[in-house]
Amino acid sequence: MKKDYEQIISNYNGGDLDLSGCTIKKLELDHVEGSLNLSKCVIDKLSIGWVSGTLNMTNAEIKNIENPIDAKTVIMTGAKLKKLPAHIYTDSLTIEKSTITKLNTDLRANVLNIRNTKLEQLPKDFRVNSLIVDAKTAKNLSLSILRQCGSIDMDGVVYSQNSVNGFNFCSVTSEANENCMCGV
After folding, report:
1. In this predicted model, what pLDDT tens digit does every residue of 89-106 receive, in sequence order?
2. Which among 90, 81, 158 is positioned nearest to 117, based on CA atoms?
3. What is the DSSP letter of 65?
């Protein structure tokens, strides 16, 4: 049985909103006081205000996100997104296994998970405290991007700027031969 998203929205009185699996031409929502589940949705145009809880877009296909994303947690695992909005503000952003090649968004997140994402470019200036990445994805990132992170969790091992040994970023990125003077 197919969900009638228009009826779900008209009956919405606050709290969590579940529109998972819906096919929607244009979704316009004000603020969501709770979590918003858009997993497995197909949406042509998305325009939402802030979400106080989790914005779940797991395995969603969204062609256009008009407004900045502002949510406590944003999950885009396996999402197919044509273009991200100009700004994303969140405590935790997961774009693991998503089809996003360039992330030119103004990104502010405490935790960014880009593990197993075919990501070739991150914004030149982004604010991320902890980056979760696999070695294969990290090799495609620039050295300056990796150095902007407070810590990097790579394949389950956490490297921090504050650690005694530090981290030899030269062994990670493919531009190491050109831009690093790595000591042994």
Report:
1. 999 999 999 877 667 778
2. 81
3. E
Is residue 129 within 8 A of residue 112, CB to CB? The reply is no
Q: Find, among 129, 128, 38, the residue nearest to 81 by Cα.
A: 38
Q: Which domain holds residue 16?
A: 5-179
Q: How do residues 40-83 score in pLDDT, each as one tens digit?
A: 999 999 999 999 999 999 999 999 999 999 999 999 999 998 77
CB-CB contact of 97 with 78 (8 Å): yes
Q: With beta carbons less than 8 A apart as the criterion, state whether 128 and 148 touch.
A: yes
Residue 182, phi then psi, degrees to nearest 5:
-90, 125
Query: Using CB atoms within 10 A of its CB, is residue 40 exposed (0-12), middle (13-18) or buried (19+)?
Result: middle
Number of domains in the chain: 1
Buried b (16+ CB within 10 A) or exposed e, 119-130: beebbeebebeb
38 DSSP β-pair partners:
none
Q: What is the pTM assigned to this prediction?
A: 0.85
Asked if residue 33 belongs to a domain, the reply is yes
